[in-house]
Fold this protein.
Amino acid sequence: MSSLVEQLLQTEAHKSLFESAVRQLPLPVCAAFGSSTNPQPVRFKSADSVLGTKDSDAVRQQFPQSVAASGNAVLTSAGATINQAQGKRVAVLFSGGPAAGGHNVVCGLKRVLGSGNTLFGVKAGPKGLLKGTLFEITDANVDFIINTGGFDFLGSDRTKIKSDEQFAQVRETCIKHNLDAIVVVGGDDSNTNAAVLAESLFTGVKADGSGVQVIGVPKTIDGDLQIGNLLSISFGFDTATRIYSEMVGNILQDTSSSLKYWHFVKLMGRSASHVALEVALQTKPAVALISEEIATKKQSLASIIDQIAQVVVERSHKGMNYGVLLAPEGLIEFIPEMNAMIAELNDALAHHVAEFAALTDNEAKAAFIGSKLSANNAALLASLPHYIVNMLLAERDSHGNLQVSLIPTEQLLIDMTKQRVKELDPKVPFAAHSHFLGYEGRCGAPTLFDAAYTYNLGLTAGSLILDGRTGYMATVTGLTSGGTPQAIPLAGLLNIERRHGKDEFVIEKALVKMDSPAMQYFVSRRETWATDDLFASPGPRQFWGPTTHQLPISVALNSGAASLMFVIG
Amino acid sequence: MSSLVEQLLQTEAHKSLFESAVRQLPLPVCAAFGSSTNPQPVRFKSADSVLGTKDSDAVRQQFPQSVAASGNAVLTSAGATINQAQGKRVAVLFSGGPAAGGHNVVCGLKRVLGSGNTLFGVKAGPKGLLKGTLFEITDANVDFIINTGGFDFLGSDRTKIKSDEQFAQVRETCIKHNLDAIVVVGGDDSNTNAAVLAESLFTGVKADGSGVQVIGVPKTIDGDLQIGNLLSISFGFDTATRIYSEMVGNILQDTSSSLKYWHFVKLMGRSASHVALEVALQTKPAVALISEEIATKKQSLASIIDQIAQVVVERSHKGMNYGVLLAPEGLIEFIPEMNAMIAELNDALAHHVAEFAALTDNEAKAAFIGSKLSANNAALLASLPHYIVNMLLAERDSHGNLQVSLIPTEQLLIDMTKQRVKELDPKVPFAAHSHFLGYEGRCGAPTLFDAAYTYNLGLTAGSLILDGRTGYMATVTGLTSGGTPQAIPLAGLLNIERRHGKDEFVIEKALVKMDSPAMQYFVSRRETWATDDLFASPGPRQFWGPTTHQLPISVALNSGAASLMFVIG
């Protein structure tokens, strides 16, 4: 066997040259933790800040023990502790879609718990917590997963722990493994779940009457879990947007090389447009749609299309028959008239089931339903491409609702723009490709920002456990000034929202704010970007060399940072 | 204005932090050129190797001056020259699809031509050569474009220079700008075009009876321009495959994190499967289809689908309801029965135009055409999903041919696999996402391999011009042992192929060879990769740090290298 073949065999199973090298990268820690390789837990004290929402009274009713214990006060590091707790048994699980840096949360937890405590991994997310599929995490595990992407060390799923039976199963798992604490790594829903679990497990779980602590860690590539300067960003957002930004930057270079294509790129990110805004700030494309702005301005689909087509025509008149458009995943749901039309359509379909089913031809179906809609909605339906109409008439989820996320927004925008461009100036050529950037951004190796941030989140979560806290979300504040371990009382974040016909406690999703510095900066530049090629290619994220220590641009702007450089430690 | 906003404004127009940093990276040069920053041109001498094809006699007839001058002998560096030519006026153009590193070819050319000669850029490819849209390239241009991706400094297009009128236009441009040489940066077709131009411009272009030299530079992300150890790989292949490999590696991590999806990924690369093979070697997915193998084994579509479905079922039985499949862009054309069916379908459609047009319903159309086909072909047509049948019946290019490349292979494979999995084991879940990775890989910043390789190709091309050569393709051999500037006589590569009903001279596309070390290594590992998760994530390409100097794995294997490390200089 050649020596090259031997080398190649050694790269299998997560051991590419890159993965092997990136495991050796040192990670900075907040000064409070001491050294990176031998970090010490910190104790916590109340900070000045007490959290609350419009529903705080109702929350206090529902979460009496959590609120009584925390007073909804934010906690901040009170320095390293010497007399740390020993013998704690802690389980960690990933919940929901993966995000880069999850592995480093586990690494931070393991390192700060040290040899005096035991860390268990829960397999395959909340489902694994119900089933009790736990295993002990070793130091060797940590050395292998550190700085690698994905959630594959544990796996994940989207089970919500809601029913009494499920709560009983969690208790059983806690008792079976004699757990003292659970760390839930997840997004807004998972952290709401963590709040509920914390209250449910507050006392009386184990034979001696003691409870099980629950700590959340803020994860989501969507960036919609933000709490002012207490939580500038969830982890995974930076890595995902940097991956998408490289791809969009590459495509932008392609447009001005090939000189003949538009590329319409839909970006993952659920409802909020944080991802689209960040990628726009990184790459400076001709057009970037922000759902929240469309909703605020109550823009119609026709006006959005017209706006895009005007840019296409104007660029063409300047000799540029190319460009890039970014669209957020949740766009359609933010167009008020689309929502109104879909609602009336759902009603009409529900009221005319038999008549509708009797029709076999798609055109006849569309005409029939159109006749049952108000004039505005019928006109809007008629303006859509036939494959969208077919989807609107056909696909319903198990609750009878349209799955808006299945609509190929990027193709819809291309087809309608093509039509509008032809109306505006038939001589303007418009050839477009569509893209959806999503899954490729969730599990890449974490940027140095996400890698360092998550390692410190893990250290913070572990410290909270050793300090006896429950019902908090770990956070690290001051990301441009060394970093401070802090904790946010989960109950202090809860609002009541009407979902599926009943009131639920939820952590409000953070949407893009029109008056935020990041949005304002985008608005100040976008007209220039539309008419001139001023794009940039941010390139692949680097782990060595001069460009490693960057914050997301939107986070830097919104937090009033003086530069893009993050400083931890 | 905040200082951060000022910093952000400075990143517009190709000045991201990454682009600014990567411009400063030093590039190694072959020892023959002396120093990187002040490289000296080399002279050339005949090497031992003389090239020829089955059609060499016919080529000699058609290319008498080129063949007489070169004797079809390969040239190799004869060391640096002191008395280099001065006052030469050289034009460089990009032809065809963009590939990473094109800018560095221009940089190498400019640096080796030095201040004693003039380098012009041709705007927008061969079309610009016809129109004479040239501009002088400055040292400042070179400092700005070095190590950046894309062809956007010049632009490109796909015009083929074939007609007498076009040749006359090229002569006019040469005379108008008093050119001494043209450098064509392109793929197999563009280099064939360069051979034809070289012969056409050999003598008698300018008033003194002299000709214009033509030199080709081997570019294509497809990797199908390879000539044994004379040309291990075209430039752009490494960058494109590294970008695709990162995305596929990220998706692989996502599969074992989310635990519920298959991802079917189609990869750009035209007919040949070099890209798919390289990405498979980098990432080790469950399935990678190689078109050339399917053609060699005369596999049917049904047998390919069965093979995929067997892997899906087997993995599911081991608890893995996920995986990644790679498919080359050209797959469909390599399935013999698909080709035969499409040919008979084209005939049948052409013979029954009126009857076919009279039918309005798609099902009726399919049934009618099915009845005109042989039993085998009718059965194959009937086995395809309806949207593919509709495409086969509807879409024809201007020559009446089906545009096979428009077929969404990745979706076809998903739908047919789903069906087959259900037959094999109805309990196996199969949820799949499709991807097409293409445009995002052509214009990224070149890997250090592509950056160094293209800079040295530019130095070689410039040296050939100063040494008075014409009708050669620049190459750099010995990529793991310092690198040697060489030149391949283009006429020595030409074959006669029947295209569009007439004989044409062409450079044969290099396909994946079943007995190549890269293919053999893949074959030796793929069954293990199918049933176990042994994937690797090669990560984003790095420009600083320990993992920068990698060769493509397939190139390293096929050239018998001892490691993945390239060594230039």
About this structure: The longest strand of chain B covers residues 42-50. Chain B has 22 helices and 16 strands.
